[in-house]
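Input.
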Amino acid sequence: MQKRKGKILIVEDEKSMREVLKILLEGENYEVVTSSDGLEGLSYITKDIFDLVITDIKMPRADGFEILKKAKEISPDTIVIMITAFGTTESAIEAMKLGAYDYIHKPFKIDEIRLILKKAIEKKKLSQEVMLLREKVRTSYTLENIIGQSEKMQELFKLIPRIAQSNSNVLIMGESGSGKELFATALHNLSHRKERNFVTINCATFPEGLLESELFGHMKGSFTGALYNKQGLFEIADGGSIFLDEICEMPMNLQAKLLRVLENGIFRRVGGTTDIKVDVRVISATNKDIKDEIASGRFRDDLYYRLNVVPLHVPPLRERKEDIPLLVNHFLRKTSDHPKKITPEAMRILMDHPWEGNVRELENVIERVSLLTDKEHITPAELPPEITEYADELKEIQDLTEEGIQIDTLIEDIEKKYLLKALKKANGVKTEAARLLNLSFRSFRHRLQKYGIK
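Output.
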């Protein structure tokens, strides 16, 4: 079935005019709701969100100006077109001041109103696309913009185009800063959905109530601060894709609502009474062990199986160190039109670093060094202390004296040091510290007890 172009409300007390407009618009593949008087039209506006409202001015119980004011009050993005057989210059000016898109006199030609409606709907869609484009310009668009020559990255480059052609949901797993959003964007832009919207949201950045409103929209007055009707991201992404980053941070009650959308494409806005059906491909991502989250009761197993139709693992930077020189030179070019050079010694230090923050951390380091040094070449002296300190520690480990070393003691010292570092980085949260060291929580706790770390 062909996708509808938009949802239109016609408020017109003249039956023949109402039916002509309905037949015309349904023939143009719009979803049409009709009302025979102003008061009924107002009730429709408060219950649903319309892309466009066509209203007569003179009607019983409530006139077109009341329709216009209410439509703009509760859904500012709704476009309103006024039609009348008794138009005056003063009423036309008043309509425009109140936010009407156009003012049409009866009788009108079919081709005239068809063109006005087409331009009005395109204007609304364009405003949405501009909003989304601002978000998309921050990210790369295809695999050509994802840098990597390592074997693991080459495997991903072969896999992504195949996955992109399906409608299956994808769960991207990988550490923070490893580039999960880049791969999600590539999946959308290599798919048949690329002409439709791609929207992204980080589930960890919104409180529970606001996250539901962002995803599914809300009706005016449904909660404190809901001053107007609002479309959710699932509606905006209809026909396209949505990227749910940090999916494990989604509250349990909201997971149930997401599960319903994945099962049948149906949801309701917060405070709404009408089911809304969408066709959206869901790409989600997490930096946590999602099976541990399920075992701990923080994530629904049935939702996991719906999201994880196709799993995708993005490797951490320490597992693809041969990509570091490519990334370093890319970030140097990105920072300046006259990029600095990096010495072999400095590059070796960067390649030996563990990069717990992955590509994002490397980019920040290179940008900082490039901006803060006046020298043409970046040497080890220009690298940040946290990078060179690790290199010094590594050098100490590699150097052997004539007397030899106590290898068991040395390994224990190193292990204890990284346990403390992980705890510090995780702000004392043991489960997060265990994740940073790729240890199970049980194994991590055993090591803490072994060294008497509290």
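The chain has 19 helices and 14 strands.
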